[in-house]
Amino acid sequence: MSRRLEKRTALITGAASGIGAACARRLAAEGARLLLADLDGAGAEKLAGELGQASVQADVTRAADIERMVDAAWERWGRLDVLVNNAGIVQVKPLLEITEDDWDRIMRVNLRAAFFVLQAVARRMVRQAPIPGSELRGKLIHTASIAAYRGGQPLLGHYSASKAGLVSVSRTAAQVLAPHRITSNCMCPGAVDTPMWKQIDADWTTLEGWERGEAWKRRTAGIPLGRPEVAEDLTGLAVFLASADSDYMTGQAVKVDGGLVMGD
Ligand SMILES: NC(=O)c1ccc[n+]([C@@H]2O[C@H](COP(=O)([O-])OP(=O)(O)OC[C@H]3O[C@@H](n4cnc5c(N)ncnc54)[C@H](O)[C@@H]3O)[C@@H](O)[C@H]2O)c1
Fold first, then answer.
1. Which of these is catalytic: 77, 115, 149, 159?
2. Cα separations (Å) of 101 from 108, 152, 231?
3. Residues with CB under 6 A from ligand 1
């Protein structure tokens, strides 16, 4: 392994499962020092133990938890080079049935919390010295989704809106933070085989009266690259966005979806 992230420090939210966990494994293999944060503190602690890294239990919807999580990074390293702002939830529901509570729950985690995590980290990043050997002070990476595109998914109206909002917030941050030499970019996964998609399949098949697994089969059937996506498919992009190779790139949203959504 090339160890492209030797000694870089990174905080990953939603690190106990799926895409966050895959990114944690890969970033660690590339030499990064990690703080793994998750609502599921035991899960984050277990993975951190396996990887020889640190963990913190945090519910990113709570301001006090965000502060404690960000404090933990600065207490450990006195700085933070990379944020992987990845925690998220989903709900499958027809547009006409989404309630105010449904809307608020999805937005609270996927957009509101992602915004305030970004803000808490950026407030400190602007005051730190550049990353050793780099012209940048820090790199913000957010996990959005292809659901942010093509008018969203029919059964994911609020989720799609939250991810479109996250792309927007990331781009505003990219503008505002560019003079401080901090970049902000989004990863947009397609349909990834993680516990989140197990939930989507369970809820969607129940709604349609299909066999379990049928929604996943239909969603992944037409993928141009010919196989379903796994969490590890995102890790090359995560390493690139965390590394010096992407230093001149900001305000972008990059799809990694096997070709499901081509173009904008
Ligand atoms: N799986 C997909 O197909 C897919 C596609 C596009 C985007 N995404 C996005 O990727 C990200 C990761 O999803 P995944 O598929 O790995 O899901 P996952 O359910 O496997 O993992 C999500 C993690 O986030 C954590 N989390 C949830 N709410 C939290 C909170 N309030 N505070 C702290 N942690 C919290 C969970 O405990 C879990 O460990 C999410 O933002 C999701 O929206 C997933």
1. 159
2. 10, 20, 29
3. 13-14, 16-20, 38-40, 58-61, 86-90, 109, 113, 143, 145, 189, 191-192, 194-197
Q: Is 149 a catalytic residue?
A: no
Domain residue ranges in the chain: 9-192+232-248
The closest residue, in CA terms, to atom 10 on ligand 1 is 143
Ligand 1 nearest-atom number relative to CA 197: 1
Q: Ligand 1: distance of its center to the CA of 133 in Å?
A: 32
DSSP 136: -
d(CA 138, CA 118): 11
Cα 259 versus chain centre, distance = 20
224 in Cβ contact with 190 (< 8 Å): no
Between CA 236 and CA 221, with CA 239 as vertex, the angle to 5 degrees is 25
DSSP annotation string for 4-22: TTTT-EEEEESTTSHHHHH
166: nearest Cα among 251, 93, 56:
251
Q: CA 211 to CA 53: how far, in whole Å?
A: 40
162 C-alpha vs ligand 1 centroid, how far in Å?
13
Average pLDDT estimate for 32-52: 98
In tens, the pLDDT along 130-173 reads 999 899 999 999 999 999 987 667 899 999 999 999 999 999 99
pLDDT digits (tens, 9 = 90+) for 204-252: 999 999 999 999 999 999 999 999 999 999 999 999 999 999 999 999 9
Architecture per CATH, 9-192+232-248: 3-Layer(aba) Sandwich (3.40)
